[in-house]
Specification:
- There is one protein chain.
- The chain is mainly alpha-helical.
- It has one domain.
- Helix content is about 80%, strand content about 5%.
- The chain is built from ten helices and two strands.
- The protein has helices at about 1-15, 20-35, 50-70, 70-95, 105-110, 110-120, 125-150, 155-185, 190-225, 230-240; strands spanning about 40-45, 45-50.
- The protein has a two-stranded antiparallel ribbon with strand order 1-2.
- A hairpin with a 2-residue loop joins strand 1 and strand 2.
- It is globular.
- The model has no long low-confidence stretch (mean pLDDT about 90).
């Protein structure tokens, strides 16, 4: 019980210390990528889902949180974001069951209601797959990022880029592969090869996004350090 109270207290302090803008972007990206995972994105022979449009943002902010607050904090915030996402999905599901028209139905008829309700209501196996994949990849990304950081002798952009790019590449591959294995392989009839190819392609696309915006993440971290952002949480966890 004492351990639980200690962890809960640390988590509450963490929520107070994480910058609101970054946390908002993190949560929004998780919600959006899980919603967009319902739509297929095809590159001819390679197929993935539209969740990749937003998932890179979740990994970028997770890398920033890991660097400043540690892997445990980043994982806890990932779990918190997923809880919020499940809450949003519950609201969407309730809305999908309300027997009234969407605005689009006045132009396209009853079929629009059925299509929108099915989309916004979600599919249980897509939600399950995206939840399991995101939690697993968040753990992989956070600990890999922190582990590489410990091996780096200098704290500069090169070390930040190394730990972020490697952890993102592996974390994103894990996220996409686990999702494809749970959803596409089991329910859509994909082969293991297709799952691997899709995970590689989306992982590369999301890594490119990380490279493009990595400088922004590094500059933001330096500002956090200069302003002593998160000092209360860091002092608490270091105190033990």
């Amino acid at each position: 019980m004492v351990k639980i109270k200690k962890e809960w207290n640390e988590f509450k302090v963490l929520l107070r210390n994480v910058p609101a803008t970054v946390m908002s972007l993190f949560i929004v990206s998780v919600v959006i990528m899980n919603l967009l995972a319902n739509k297929e994105l095809s590159f001819g022979w390679a197929v993935t889902d539209c969740g990749i449009i937003a998932s890179w943002m979740a990994f970028l902010t997770s890398d920033m949180l890991t660097k400043r607050f540690g892997p445990k904090a980043a994982i806890e915030m990932s779990l918190f974001a997923e809880v919020v996402n499940l809450g949003v999905c519950a609201i969407f599901f309730i809305v999908s069951k309300i027997p009234n028209n969407w605005a689009l139905a006045y132009d396209m008829g009853e079929a629009a209601n059925e299509a929108l309700n099915a989309t916004i209501g979600g599919t249980w196996y897509v939600l399950m797959g995206s939840t399991v994949a995101f939690i697993a990849s968040s753990i992989i990304n956070a600990y890999l990022n922190a582990g590489i950081g410990k091996l780096c002798k200098k704290d500069n952009f090169i070390s930040y880029a190394l730990r972020s790019y490697v952890s993102t590449a592996i974390g994103q591959f894990s996220d996409n592969f686990i999702f494809a294995l749970i959803v596409s392989y089991v329910f859509f009839g994909w082969s293991i090869g297709q799952c691997v190819i899709a995970a590689c392609i989306t992982g590369v696309i999301e890594l490119i996004c990380e490279v493009i915006f990595g400088g922004f993440g590094y500059k933001t971290l330096r500002k956090w350090e200069a302003r002593n952002v998160g000092a209360e949480y860091l002092a608490l966890v270091n105190k033990g």
